[in-house]
Write a structure and sequence with these properties.
The chain contains 8 helices and 11 strands. It has 237 residues and is of the alpha/beta class. A hairpin with a 4-residue loop joins strand 1 and strand 2 (31-36).
Length: 237
Amino acid sequence: MSELFNRLLARRTETDGGRPLITYYAEPGGVRTELSATSFSNWVSKTAGLLTDEILIEPGQTVRLDLLRTAPAHWVTLVWVAATWRVGCAVTMTSDADAAVEVVGPEHAQDEPGAIERVACSLHPFGLGFRETLPPGTIDYGVEVRAQPDSFTGPWPADADPTWIDASQTMNQQDIITAASAGPAQRTMIDPADSAGPWATVTDCLITPVLTGGSVVVTVGTDTDRRAQIAEDERVD
């Protein structure tokens, strides 16, 4: 078995779990959420458990992750990406994909579920659920994920298991390892508004930090002066 992304994440958690992996800023409001490798992996494990034990997803199936369109660099979105890969499934945003489940943000939480199961994410800074009742058939991620175990012991995915499907490419487990450029472990700053698209955002905010041993500071809705202040405060390289 070749090296896989989630195995590298597990190794990072074991050897350097307390150091920040993703620091997320969203403004207005001054929201700051920091996840170490340990806390991020915990969310990934719980989400993987939700996928397999609640939704009953199987390896090779597809998760339609609308969050990649509405909140591509949110830490909850990145958790869903890593959890989908952990259970051997593919992430997509395309509506014509034969998906097993759809994951949406708060702007679509009250939509009536379609033919496939829907999970709604509040994107609360602490991962809490919605205050309002969701339509029947919609899973409240912030509520249901907390009931899942802190560790996921399901089988590791295979090299050829799908990971990403979009209009221009289809990738497997090995492809995502080669997607990021090797380099030194740095603390970088990413503004998703400057990104070339969802895949570039996932590569910069998730894959590269895990593969290099670095970390990322994500800023959403910040102006130039605010980003400069955050870069100084967070000691960005």
